[in-house]
Queue: 2 jobs
Job 1
Amino acid sequence: MEEGGRIQAGDRSRVSLVIGIIIALLAVGVALYFAVIAHSVKEQMTGFDPNRQVPDDATLQKRLSPEQYHVVRENGTETAFKNKLWNNFQAGIYVDIITREPLFSSSDKFDGGTGRPTFDKPISNDSIIQRDDNSYEMHRTEIRAKRSNAHLGHLIADPTSPTGQRYAVNSAAFYFIPVEDMEHAGYASYVAMVRQVAQK
């Protein structure tokens, strides 16, 4: 340094270099932080992991649309014939919108005339729970996803169903994964079942 406390050009250059390195390190740290967050969100939003914690209601309110939240957490019912999956007959699986657990298959879907997705059985009975529903002065059997406790719809006796039962559910409670996307989305073990039925 010069007399009088002046900083020489070389010192200024070194200070600038240190500041530049610190800024670069901070930028890299921020980028890595957001990359980790993005990866974590992607893991939460795709595939099914039975060990993944079910999000709390506050998280679900941010993640889901108002209609989706109303259906799965407030036992809502969407409008018949005005929902996205009622007349979808593509090959694929219907997964819980909260946990991404596969609950129903296109191989078991049929037109129940209800204006909502209708199935004759779930992929696994162990993934669904049944409860008495006496709301609106009616006696019905409500069906919920066992893992997430999401309200799905109702189970009704139906002689037109191959099993004599009709699982009438809400589109808003599900994501539909087409068969061509299932392997990439983490559902490879279900592809053969869906394709076998689709090819009949």
Note: Confidence is low (pLDDT under 50) at residues 38-45.
Job 2
Amino acid sequence: MKNIILLALLLITSLLPGCAPASNEIAGLSLRGGLQAWVDAPLDGSILTLPITYSLVCHGTDSSGVQALEFNVNEQVFAVVSNPDPGETLFNASQPWQPVDPGMYTIRCRVQNSVGEWSSYASAQVTVVAMTGTITPTLTFTPTETSTSTATSTSTPTPTAAVIIFTSQVSTHTFEYQHDCVPSPGEVTITAILSSTAGVKSVYLFFRLESSELGVTTEWNAGSPMTPGTGGYSSTVTWDDIPQLSQIQWSSAAFAYQFVVVDASNNILARSQVFRDVMLSPCD
């Protein structure tokens, strides 16, 4: 009996080289969790008010490299974005979307790896409603004597769609704050890319924390000017730059942020939607 088992093992071993999967069959294996896509924005369950221009944001990963991301709205291909560096194992992209009619929309994304395989779809469902004159918080600027800008929170009707289309890029989708340990990473760099800079003097970054665990949404911070560069306007926020941190009581929260564009007279030209593609958590 032992001889029979040994013979069977030898036979299986001899056949393994011929039965090894082709490289494209194992391309999805990755320390990041394999060939996979995520919908970063909008969040599942979001409610958007018409008229609006919204940036759909997705990212995907694979150890073999990522060559494209597909955006899909209600099971119709909306856009396919090619990765300029298909050797990268992580790729994120965004697409401006202007829904026309109220209703339920399913936003889906999938990623294609370097050997042409597609991942399964990641999805988020959103509700688009018509503007009803509901009063929502917005941000206005008051010039000071030194011609700098400070921000105050007021209540105004939801505005019509902005002329400027905003795209956001972030250095990380998750960063940490100190909790008896060293945060890693302890900061996030956010870049605002504008479809047009005509008449733009400055871009300001505002942020707040939204904890679904606690049911807490903090006030907006005071706002800070972003640094212009060749790739857009950027700001780096470290965990100890967040004044609202004490309000989330060591829980995790979405780091929600918004861009506000002003002209030379400090009048608001446009506001972006609120992005929620970054999470803040206590370090372990």
Note: The CA atoms of residues 189 and 236 lie 4 Å apart.
